[in-house]
Please model this.
Amino acid sequence: MTRSTEYHPRARGGSARGRQVSSRRVRDLILASIREGTLDLDTQLVEEDLIRMFNSSRAAVRDALNELSDAGFLVRRPRLGTRVHRRDLGLELTAISGIGGESVEIVIREQRLVPNLPLVRTRLNIHDDHVRLVENTFHAFGETIGLRSAYFSASYDADPTELAGIPLTMERTAAEFFGTDPGDAWVSIGAERCDERTGQILGVPAGSTLLMREITYTTSDGAPFQIVFDRFRADFVRFETRHDHRGVA
Model:
């Protein structure tokens, strides 16, 4: 199908006049389109089409494509063009499974008893001399995407390796490992620079940005039973939630 020249980005005098010139905004729109399925995996992206689609300058589109290629979302090859390579993984704020049905598996790195800590003693109301520490990695898309350190009472003596290598949800973990139904969760999310040892585990350079998540899980009757500290690769993971503002003054 052909278009009149009045639709071309340069038809009104100047390649960027009145159009989007921020590669950051173009990058946002492309990533959101990939997440929504507007741009499917393996779709070929053509600069001219994106210029029209996002009402953007050529420089902004080209910079955004290069940035997304560097991050691994796109593949750019001479004479073959640019194609969508992968999506990122959306996680609910307190979940360990992908919201789009993506499989997330764990691998246990370490489990042992450690001296009880003031934070754990106070928050979980545990007064024993020792608590249990389990550290595991998260895996999706054939990559190590995250790392968790979990603290809880030593009275929970189930073997976490029995949950390794299979798709998990927090509901399943609470039921099969802790023998309880999950209730509320308190969550705090931030960002930090990756240290060298963590970078070796996650396969990223030291200094890379990680998403940091601290969660305290409670049972269905409100008793806190576990504190976790998660670190996720910012190039693979995003957090999502839905909030109903109806009726909020």
Summary: Helices lie at 23-36, 47-53, 58-70, 118-124, 170-176, 196-202. The CA atoms of residues 44 and 83 lie 4 Å apart. Residues 9-14 have pLDDT under 50 and may be disordered. The longest strand covers residues 182-193.
